[in-house]
Design brief:
The structure holds two protein chains of two kinds. By secondary structure, chain A is of the alpha+beta class. Helices cover 35% and strands 22% of the residues of chain A. Chain A is built from nine helices and twelve strands. Chain B has one helix and 16 strands. The chains are: A alpha+beta, B mainly beta.
């Protein structure tokens, strides 16, 4: 059995589907005047995000979990709209929908609002997935499935609901929302629809701006696009304020310390680029393997990787 | 024992959970867009045989369980314990009725069995997949019946009862599949 492990996991059909997808992506952005760029996969700094663990390369730094920081430095230097197809790396993420190394399509649109970027994402996805789409704020979607408003109901109620749904002990209220989102809400999404989820909790803003929604509750200017319950894309109205960015880095590291994770040095080049001036922009990342799974109905990410981590 | 983090959980890994040794069957990584990641894990409790489903925060860890599978030769039973010997080292281990479980009805002296050791002591015993045992009691069959249509019960030397074809007689040795408890064939003396 183990003697067949030298062979690729992906079929020739899946390999051709990937090649086709990549050329469609390039044609799409070429026609829209978006420049293809390449940035390092290996760099001196990783990310502070409390839920992403970068892979360290001793003597060099970190494999990049996303090309975001370098692409923002290009934008600050006046690149105009850019996209990239890059390999990114995340420690510990392996399963039917995750591989520690995967291909990310990431692009940035100066002067685009979040709504314009959502439209562009749906236009690109429409090349392959002819599906109706719905746009739902996170709060409403979450409340519809769980009966609880994740942003205004008492934290103890969310913790209790997660515990009842089989969550591990000791989750705080944000982790309880994450648990219910991953195990109840995502699985309840309509499989025949592209669901655009907007206005995430402010605590999950990452590198997105925060605003107040119609009830005065702070929400992140972020969206995610799901195909059924499969997350395909994650977009931000990008944070451009260097001071706020520095505060988020510090808050992330505080949260990391609370989980017993090591602190990550804030990337001084990104902060310097924001200080120099990042144009107002929106940006989004799409997982290429997830796209292939959605388009062709593959149920396991290993079916679209020539050599998934177990064989690589 | 070492600790294993959720990213190291894979099928067959033996870990301690709620004080019992368990074997991981399945480990699924789930993560909402930007947030806490979880691992949904299926484990078999090696003491009870029951399958547990638990969710862990990714990065949590469990202590490894000192569990290993070894092949040992069955020696004898004193009524309370079943005694086995490692054919290489000649080291002996005694398994109690809970550890031997259903395997006891198939154990014949000198047969090799797979024994799961936990902290060096037998936790469970698996009978060989096929055993050859002598029939000690069965009704005489009808002469001329070779098709073995309905079959009849036969008691084997170990006390196990299996259904055999009508033509099989007391004193004959039969081969049985211990996983299903079914008669496979006669062994010609």
């Amino acid at each position: 059995m183990s003697s067949r492990i030298w062979q690729p996991a992906a079929s020739l059909e899946a390999m051709k589907a990937r090649a086709e997808l990549l050329s469609t992506v390039r044609a799409f952005f070429d026609a829209r005047g978006v420049l293809e760029v390449e940035t390092p996969a290996l760099a001196a700094h990783g990310v502070t995000d409390p839920h992403i663990h970068c892979i360290e390369v001793p003597g060099y730094g970190w494999l990049q979990s996303s090309p975001e920081y370098h692409m923002k430095r290009l934008l600050a230097a006046g690149s105009g709209p850019i996209y990239q197809l890059s390999r990114v790396f995340r420690h510990g993420e392996a399963g039917p929908r995750h591989n520690p190394e995967f291909t990310m399509l990431e692009w940035y649109r100066p002067e685009f609002s979040l709504e314009q970027l959502i439209d562009e994402c749906l236009a690109l996805l429409g090349r392959w997935l002819r599906r109706p789409n719905v746009i739902r704020p996170f709060r409403h979607l979450f409340a519809e499935v769980t009966g609880l408003d994740p942003l205004t109901c008492p934290p103890a109620a969310l913790v209790a609901a997660a515990a009842e749904a089989g969550a591990p002990h000791g989750l705080d209220h944000r982790q309880s929302v994450d648990f219910l989102m991953a195990t109840q809400v995502e699985t309840a999404l309509d499989p025949a629809t592209l669901t655009v989820v907007t206005d995430f909790p402010a605590w999950a803003a990452a590198l997105a701006q925060v605003r107040e929604d119609e009830d005065g509750v702070p929400v992140a200017r972020r969206f995610e696009i799901y195909h059924g319950g499969l997350e395909l894309a994650n977009g931000y109205q990008e944070l451009t304020d260097a001071g706020e960015q520095a505060r988020r880095f510090a808050a992330d590291n505080q949260e990391r310390a609370g989980h017993g994770d090591r602190a990550m040095a804030p990337d001084p080049h990104l902060l310097a680029a924001l200080q120099a001036g990042l144009p107002s922009c929106s940006g989004v990342a799409m997982g290429v393997e997830r796209l292939l799974m959605a388009i062709h109905g593959y149920r396991d990410i290993r079916q679209v990787l020539t050599f998934p981590t177990q064989r690589a | 024992m070492a600790n294993y983090s959720t990213s190291e959980f894979k099928s067959g890994l033996k870990v301690m959970l709620d004080g019992d040794p368990c074997s991981i069957i399945e480990n699924e990584f789930v993560k909402p867009g930007k947030g806490q990641a979880f691992n949904r894990v299926k484990l078999r409790n090696l003491k009870s045989g029951k399958v547990w489903e638990r969710t862990f925060k990714s990065g949590d860890s469990l202590e490894g369980a000192d569990v290993m599978d070894v092949e040992m030769q069955y020696l004898y039973s004193d009524g309370e314990f079943w005694h086995f010997m490692d054919p290489q080292s000649f080291e002996q281990k005694a398994a109690d009725a809970a550890a031997v479980g259903d395997a006891k009805q198939w154990l014949k002296e000198e047969d090799l069995c797979e024994i799961t050791l936990y902290n060096g002591e037998p936790l469970s015993v698996s009978a060989p997949n096929f055993v050859e045992l002598e029939i000690v009691e069965t009704d005489p069959g009808l002469k001329g019946d070779t098709a073995g249509t309905g079959g009849k019960p036969a008691t084997l030397s170990t006390g196990a009862v299996v259904r055999v074809p009508l033509f099989v007689q007391v004193g004959e040795v039969v081969k049985v599949d211990t996983r299903t408890g079914e008669y496979v064939g006669r062994i010609k003396g």
